[in-house]
Amino acid sequence: MSDSVQDRIHRTVTGSPVVLYMKGTPEAPRCGFSRAVVDVLSGLSVPFTAVDVLADAEVWQGVKAYSDWPTIPQVFVGGTFIGGCDIVRDLHAKGELEPLVRAAIAARG
Amino acid sequence: MIAADEIERRILAGLPGARVPALVDLAGDRDHWRATVVAPQFEARSAVDRHRLVYACLQDVLGGALHALSLETLTPDEWVERSGAA
Prior knowledge:
Radius of gyration of chain B: 12 Å
Number of strands of chain B: 3
Strand content of chain A: 15-25%
Low-confidence stretches of chain A: none
CATH topology of chain A: Glutaredoxin
Strand order of the largest sheet of chain B: 1-2-3
Low-confidence stretches of chain B: none
Radius of gyration of chain A: 13 Å
Number of domains of chain B: 1
CATH architecture of chain B: 2-Layer Sandwich
Strand order of the largest sheet of chain A: 2-1-3-4
Distance between the termini of chain A: 34 Å
Largest sheet of chain B: 3 strands, mixed
Helix content of chain B: 25-40%
Number of helices of chain B: 3
Mean pLDDT of chain B: 93
Number of helices of chain A: 5
Largest sheet of chain A: 4 strands, mixed
CATH topology of chain B: GMP Synthetase, Chain A, domain 3
Shape of chain A: globular
Structural class of chain A: alpha+beta
Number of strands of chain A: 4
Oligomer: heterodimer
Distance between the termini of chain B: 37 Å
Order of helices and strands of chain A: HEHEHEEHH
Number of domains of chain A: 1
Strand content of chain B: 15-25%
Shape of chain B: globular
């Protein structure tokens, strides 16, 4: 795996307050778990950056190495990996996701 | 495609003292599973770390025979609380 992919992923996850690596696009998710995360994030009515791993095999493998997490989807908030579908849904159910996201957006100005 | 007892065996081998009280074949295809894992090793660990501990048990099959795994990770105390057991 080239360093440049890791650099690219690092720039992506630190370049927006909320970044989702998913299968497919928010408009057309290609996996139920990715769709579930899109639904949660869309429900917060905040902008998020989505990256389709199916469109780039290097990024697909690279993000798994970057986060040390073997599955997609993956959510980064404020540049920090916060989890996959189960954890994001769980944080949302506990009311902890929105404050986290709002804080990351506010920190960016 | 993977059998339930193959998933459970790996989790119990990697996390001694763990239990898998629920293991559901979500789509009926033995590819997409949902597991509840109760393990003392989860104590004082974040959700991300708990998931990583379970993934580590399954690294030889995850993404291959095991296409998707939804996880609920609880300490023994949390399991008692959640299941409403005395």
